[in-house]
Amino acid sequence: MSEKQAYPIGTKGEKWQQAEVDAWRATTSIKRSYQDQVQNKLSTLPSEFERIQYGALSYDQARYPLFALKSKQWDPSKINVLVTGGVHGYETSGVQGAILFLQQYAAKYLNKVNLLIAPCVSPWGYETINRWNPNAVDPNRSFYADSPSEEASKLMQLVASIEGGFALHIDLHETTDTDESEFRPALAARDGKPYVAGSVPDGFYLVGDSENPQAEFQKAVINEVSKVTHIAPADTNGQLIGVDIEQFGVINYSMKALGLCGGMTNSQFSTTTEVYPDSPKVDDDNCNRAQVAAIVGAIEHLLLSLGR
Questions:
Q1: For the segment 212-252, what is each residue's pLDDT rounded down to a tens digit?
Q2: Could you tell me the pTM of the whole model?
Q3: What element of type H or E holds 26?
Q4: Which of 66, 67, 149, 300 has the least CB density, counted as fewest CB within 10 Å?
C-alpha cells in the first residue's frame, strides 16, 4: 500500500494529478457571499469613483465578475496608485480593508493621485475561504506571462491598460493560523514535498521587494500601522516566517521571481501587507483598519517623497 502523507489527499512524495485536484476541490464549499459582502458594498461607494468590470471568472461568470474602482476624474498629470486585495480570497481584511479605505479615506487623496483599487481579486477564494483557485493554483504565485491563474492574468491585463504605470502598489494580505493548519500542508502535498512546520507571527508585518527594498518607505508604513495595531516581533532566529528581518516588522522577497502580485508593476514603491487576524489582541475592525493605515502610510510617504 502506498504511504500516505499527513494531508488527507495525495500520496507521499508524489505530485498531485487531476484526480487529486478534483478530490481537493470536492472538499470546498461556499461559506460566504461575494455578492453580499463585496459587490453590494462596491455599488454604494462615493460618486468620485467609477466601478469597472475587468472580466469574470470562467468557473461561474455570472457569480464571479471582477471589479475595480477607478478615479472617475483620471488625470494624466497625477501620479497613479494601485491597491489590490483578496488575491488570496481567504484573507478577509485585505478585501474589507480595501473597501473601508474606499468608503472613508480615498476621496481625500483624489486631488493628488489617481487611484485604481481591485478589492477582491479572487472571489471564488473569498466565498470558499481558500488560498487557491478551483484548479489548486495559487494566484499569488502566478503573476507572470501565460499565467495559469485567471485571477492573476485578468488583473495584469487591467494594470497593463493604464497609461503611465504606477508609482505605488500596495497588496493587502493576511497570515492566519490556517496557513499552518491547512494551506501549507496542502501545498506540500500538492507538490509532493515533505511538510515542514513553521510558525505564524503574532502581529502585522510587511513583505518588501528584495530587488527594490525601499527601506524608508517600508518604515513609514510600519510607523503608521503601529498607531492602530501591534507589529510582529522577530522570532528567536531573527526571522518572520523563516525569512531574516530587514528592519522591525519587515522582510523582503524577490517578488517578480516568485510571481507575486506585489511584483507585477515596476512601481517605485511596492509592499505586501500581512495582518494576523487570529491574535487575541485584535478583532475584525482592527484588522481592517490596519490595512487602511498601511494604505494611508504608503500614500503619504509617496507624496512626501515627491514634495506634494
A1: 999 999 999 999 999 999 999 999 999 999 999 999 999 99
A2: 0.97
A3: helix 18-26
A4: 300
Query: β-strand 168-174 against 269-275: which pairing, if any?
Result: parallel
What are the contacts of 103-109 at 24+ separation with CB within 8 A? Answer: 103/41, 103/45, 103/46, 104/292, 105/292, 105/295, 105/296, 106/46, 106/48, 106/49, 107/46, 107/48, 109/81, 109/299
Query: Residues near 106 by Cβ (< 8 Å), separated by ≥ 6?
Result: 46, 48, 49, 115, 117
Q: How far apart are CA 287 and CA 74, in angstroms?
A: 30
- By C-alpha distance, which of 274, 253, 267 is closest to 172? 274
pLDDT at 308 over 90: no
Task: Please give the distance of CA 222 from its chain centroid, rounded to a whole number.
Answer: 17
* 269-282 pLDDT, tens digit each: 999 999 999 999 99
- Residues present in the chain in total: 308
